[in-house]
Amino acid sequence: MNHIDLIIPVIAPLLAAAISLSVGWRTVTKWANSLAAVTILGTGLLFAFGTRSRHVELFGGLLRSDPLSSLLLIAIGAVGSLVTVSSVDYIERELSVGATDRSDARQYATLVPLFLTTMVLVVLSNNLGLIWIAIEATTITTAFLVGHHRTRLSLEATWKYVVICSFGITLAFLGTVLLYFASVHSGSSPADALNLNTLVRRAGRMDKTVTRLAMGMLLIGFGTKAGLFPFHTWLADAHSQAPAPISGLMSGILLSVAFTVVLRLKVVGDAALGVGYVRNSLLIVGIATLTIAVSLMVSQRDLKRLLAYSSLEQMGFIAVASAAGTELAFVGVLMVIVGNALAKTVLFIASGQLQSIRHSTLLEDLNGVMESSRLLGVSMMIGLVGLVGLPPFALFVGELSIARAMVNANLVLPLLVTLLLLLVGFVSLIRHLGGMLLGPRTADEATWKARPSVYVALTLGLSASLFVGLVGSPFSNLVSSAAAVVAR
Amino acid sequence: MSASEFTTLLDLVASVLLLSSVIIVWRRDYGAMIKLLAVQGVAVGGIPLVSGIYLKDLQLVVVGMMVILLRGGVLPWVLSRRLADETAGSRETKPLVNTTSALFVTALLVMVGYLVTHPMLRRASTPETRAIPAAFAVILIGVFLLVSRKRALSQGIGFLVMDNGIDAVAFLATLGVPAIIEIGASFDLLLVLAILVILTGRMHAKFKDTDLDALSELRD
Amino acid sequence: MSVPSVTGTLVQIVGAAAAGPLLIGWTRQVRAKLEGRQGAGVLQPYRDLRKQFGRQSIDPIGTTMVFAVAPSIMAATTLMAAALVPLVTVISPADRIGDMFAVVGLLLLGTVSLVLAGLDTGTAFGGMGASRMTTILALVEPTLLVAVFALSIPAGSTNLAGMVANAARRGDLVLSPTGALAVIALLIVVLAETGRLPFDNPTTHLELTMVHEAMILEYSGPRLAILEWSSGVRLLVLTGLCANLILPWGIERGTGSVLSLCVATAAIALKVGVLNGLVASFEVVVAKVRLFKVPELLAGSFLIGLLAVTASYFVGSQGR
Amino acid sequence: MTDLQSRPVEAHRKEPRGSRPLLVGTSTILVGGLSIVLGIAAMSGGIASVSISWLLPFSGLQFSADSTSGLFLLMNGAVGIAVGTYSIGYYRHSHSGTFSLMMLPLFLLTVIAVLLAGSVTTLLLMWELMAVSSMLLLLTEYRKKEVRDAAQWYGALTQLGFLAILVGTLIMSGGSAGVFSTLAITSHHLSESLRDLVFVLTFIGFGSKAGLVPLHVWLPRAHAEAPGPVSAVMSAVMAAMGIYGIMRVDLELLGHGPRWWGVVALSVGAVSALYGALQASVATDLKRLLGYSTTENMGIVVLAIGMSMLLGGYGQYELAAVALVAGTYQLLAHAAFKTLTFLAAGAVHSATGLRNLDLMGGLAKRLPVTSSMFAVGALGASGLPLGAGFVGEWLLLQSLIHSHFGSSAPLEFAIPVAVGVLALTTGLGTAAVVKAYGVGFLARPRSKGAESATEVGLPMLAGMAVAAVGCLAVAIAPALFNGVLTSLMTVLYRGVSVSPPRLGAILSIPGFAGSTSPILLAGSTVILVVLAQVAISSFGKTNRLPNRDANLWACGNGILGERMQYTATSFAEPLQRVFDNVLKPEVGIEVTHYDESHYLVERVRYSRTIVDSIEDRIYRPVLRGFLWGANLVRVFHSGRISRYLALGAAGLFVVLVVSH
């Protein structure tokens, strides 16, 4: 049976991009972009909770949909919707103060749905080569979004972003080639030698040394895009210089999408090499990432960089968690992904508002938020609570599940190290953000008013996180079956 | 084409690959580097072309032509367009590592390339796979260029050398990944290079220089 | 609750209450004689009390209830202690009401009320005395408890009657390492608690040295009388307790006859008299230590008490 | 301690704020009532276990209650009712945010939920919710920097504690959701080393909530900076939750462990008690003083628990029960008197705007009811007879005195040291409350704020009265709690039949000599005091001279000024000098010379501040270490792309090497 509907979430944003490219920044563009994101969300929900089988394929296995990809489609759609809605306000505000011009607005409106397309493609691809192409394409589509402001700093950030990411991703291509070599030599037909299912099936017969080399390259290569050590260095710069909604998209979802590629590869690696190799690599890379992230959070002075490093921290955390490899661990990982996506998007959207008012992202300039706007302050406060892993939000459930899984997998020592590092991150976040939100206001200004759309986005994001964190089914069933896809 | 001719041709290709990389490390003149890059690109494309002719596989021949067009023509051309606008000089003036050391490192990298690829040779020893160490060394030399050069343009060159190496490995090891992926990857590469070139242009406009050491304002 | 036991308790309370001032007079007289003075006679404290009771009560401006009630609390806690401590009899019905901890606590309560009264006046003297007294009492308590602890281990009880009865039964407790060490510690603490030299000079009014007197500087008339009387009774009760722990001979142990009560009373009078005579002689030869040397002294006695406990574990463990 | 300048009287600044305080107060009382009802039900074994699988994804919630929960529920409820009544009046004057106001009943609800938790994951969720809600309560006056600092410290240490509990309990449950009823059995199958790890982790975690040294540093700050009712619940209820955790997990679920567990608990308790008492005795901020007193009392409780574990380890279950009852009783007493003293301190703050004892004085005349309430609480805190703290300490001393550890020489030394520590703690604790009451409430006012104070309103007084009744009940009627404590024993000493100490009119311990009777002691002392008063006044009568008012003796120098009074600082100076080595006060001497000559001194400025030396010695170096390490990472991330690429290349090489 042909499931042509799999390409809907790929096509919809492409159409939106085409519209934006052709008509520029207009009302129809704004609607089209939001609609495209909502379509992704809708198809995700449909694939996840619809009546048909949850595992389907298209184009001979080039694309497929399973619970994991459905979950990520939902996440992309949700974050994308929040971002496209709040982008309207963001761009309008920039246009009104002359921070951007109409052609850049057109570029922005074109690239955002393209970016969504590439992420959807990563999620839906079942072919390692295609995944690689799509991941590299996320760099291409976001390069000019990061450089949207055309300032010296954003140029610097873009350059680093493109060069470091391409470097890392190129290594992943090398890994892909090597894996292809191993796969072909184990008897796969060249046509579907890179099909993930084939890879898993053939894993036992693949050359160990080559596969080890390939897995190593793939891990650090795709790890680049997930912000993992040693290619994490682009992340903070890009996230802090990108327009706030784009930071939200990148921090909230792009990293996680890239990370699920690592998860899918882990299945191949485990099948080919036994659990030790990938597990140890993930532990080392994860703890290194965590250490770096929290170290840079401790005395951070820039709000957006702080949030970026917090994403890095979460990525390190879920890398360590994935080492446990059980279904419960992946449940935790996915809950962290979801919780982080929602909280981070909310905080980035809100920080975009702050930035556009105070024209700075330095924490010292952003003081007294609660005094200036109670609503913004409270939503950031709740976002903060959600971000640091306190209940009743999704991240808490994630951390709890991960802790359970790691104890179960006899990874108590890494768990303790990880939690201590997370504690440093926790303290840094409440210290910096708490001070920013609650501290006295030095700027002399009237109370702020943001557009209702922003508040809608904030409220929706927070309530979704609350719902996911507190109430079980049907969402938790989806998460369970998504976790089962990559679990041993 | 006989088997021995085929082997000779592949050996030639491998030598060209390796030699061009070494000379790129040696030279500091961008113009020369870009020309060498074009030569290297042709050599990479030569692998599937030669194999295609040898195996009488039309698809491989087409792929080879495409690769030669892209890596030997389009990409160097994009870079040289950039070079034409460069006013800060057409030489890499102050690399992080001086030429002598760089050559020494290159020698080391070639050895590493051989060591790393050793297991692949053990697995299947064909004329193609025997050339893999050279291709692998090219990758490592590309990485070295990327790390040790400070100007924006030479980073682009390093990146391309590395990518050439990977593509060469792909062709040598498996006669190329499936065509759709090869096409997609090449398209990606082209776009990345285009972006880099555009960014170099913007950088030039902003900083009047493309020394990447100037790019260290974003830090904690 | 038998008649003899109740009688014994009553004798204790009344006797202590009556003889407290006498004891003060006695120690003063001993000191005077040793210092080569004539002395005012052992009955002088009674004459002082009569005079004070006849005077008008004065309320210093700005003081509160605390100031007015403190002497009464002092008196009440002292009397309670007199009832609980086995001076004459070990079969007192009051014994079950409070053990050594209760006695220590009650005495402390009296001291605390006095400290508060000193603070209540709001004078520099009152505050100074209160501050110094608080420092001393904070340090005295551990020593006291550890010493009691040491003595209670061989007895298997913290109730004083049990401890004294045990001492009487064994007869040689004071000669055992535990007993000797504990009693030394206890004696030092009693001196501190009752404000004797070398901790406090009971006769001084020099602001640099006084502790107890500084707190009660604002008192006069009946309240002062009550306070003076209480401190006499306190001295009696505590030294009486020490005496009975060292030499429990003669104490009423349940025969209940009038004769044995009389003997017990006479014995305790003798013991307290001799002990206080010794204390007074001791006071003649020592000088008051500097306030900040006091902690050293108390730390020393704490250590002695601790040694006593340890000794009791190792020596006394066979006996249990 | 730090703020010597008088704060403006903010308390009266805001207008009454309508019915909202009434609403909050009433709902708090209702939650308190609910807690009591649940507590009674749990005590009588009437709560069936409930499991809710659709909440908390992947773990589900599980509730159950036994008498341990019941006891704490009752305590929580009683405190809730007192605080709820009080807050009706308090929030009418305060300028706190409405949001945190609403958190008060919610916080108590989370406490109830913690107590009802019947599985590890439920406990963890509720514990964290409790932390969040208490954090928001603490942030009531978030505009003050000290409040934000306190919240930071609290957040960091409570999270540290949570993580320790998380790992500890999960190891115990083997990563499962861990229903308590099965855990009690399965936890015995864990290996020795894992059980030790569980103990250490959970003890750290729960200990941080109870404010045990060295994880106490948040406590004096938080308790000082929170509003009065919040400090009261944090100290009386939340600190006790740390003890609940230790009882539930380390005593009940984990069961008997090696003897060193008891020694650890004993030592940590002793150190905390002593350190808390010492810091309290030299503190000058009233609420900070009370905060340190919480550490002191929790230390005593943990000391008792440790003693109980140790005695149990040596098979002396009767005495183990005595020690445990002692700890529990001390906990009850602490809840009563600390609620009272914190509420009174809140009333003082609300009436005067002051927390610094050095600026108070004369409040006994101006706030007569509040002052006497504080006196009742302070008496309880001192541990003297007639006070609420006496019974617990008496029981604890009994268990110490009667214990006997056969051949273990170190323990034979440890016990007398514990007695000495306990006694020194009592002495210092007494000094602290004497200072608080004597300097803060007696004598003459030392500042404008204290001078112009007027008595607080009826709801606040009523709230304090409820707590005072609790204090009295604990002090003189231990018989009331006999049943409660007995049923507690049956849970914690499963399978061992012990007869707990009898808490009647006369306290005694079955099988051991020694008794005391708080009620008779109190009764006779009060009667004697009355008699003595009558005696004094009747002597005055016979002379027919009425009492006369007279000026204080000022050495003939006229009227005494307020500045001539002893302050809290000067009062504690001798003690501080004695414990210089532990307290390590920061001394600053600043000498100003005349311009003309270096030998002539114009002015000498001497300052001496007491800091928390543990904070200084342990936390600062650790923080410095962290910052140093973080800085290394920061320096590496210099912004140079060549360095970043080199890092990536290094990663590539590592992969190449590792793959062979």
Can you walk through the features of this model?
The complex is a heterotetramer of chains A (488), B (220), C (320) and D (660). Helices cover 80% and strands 0% of the residues of chain B. By secondary structure, chain B is mostly helical. Chain B has one domain (3-212). Chain C is mostly helical. The radius of gyration of chain C is 19 Å and the shape is globular. Chain C has one domain (3-319). Chain C has helices at residues 3-34, 44-54, 65-84, 100-121, 124-155, 160-170, 177-193, 212-215, 221-246, 258-285, 294-316; one strand spanning 58-60. Helix content of chain C is 71%, strand content 1%. With 660 residues, chain D is mainly alpha-helical. Chain D has helices at 20-43, 67-93, 98-116, 120-138, 145-173, 180-186, 192-210, 218-225, 228-253, 259-282, 286-313, 317-352, 363-366, 368-382, 390-402, 409-441, 448-451, 458-476, 482-492, 518-542, 568-578, 580-583, 613-636, 641-658, and strands at 50-52, 61-63, 502-503, 507-509, 512-516, 548-550, 586-593, 601-609. In chain D, strand 3 and strand 4 form a beta hairpin. The model of chain D is unreliable at 1-16 (pLDDT under 50). The interface between C and D is large, with 91 and 90 residues. Strand 1 of chain C pairs parallel with strand 6 (548-550) of chain D.
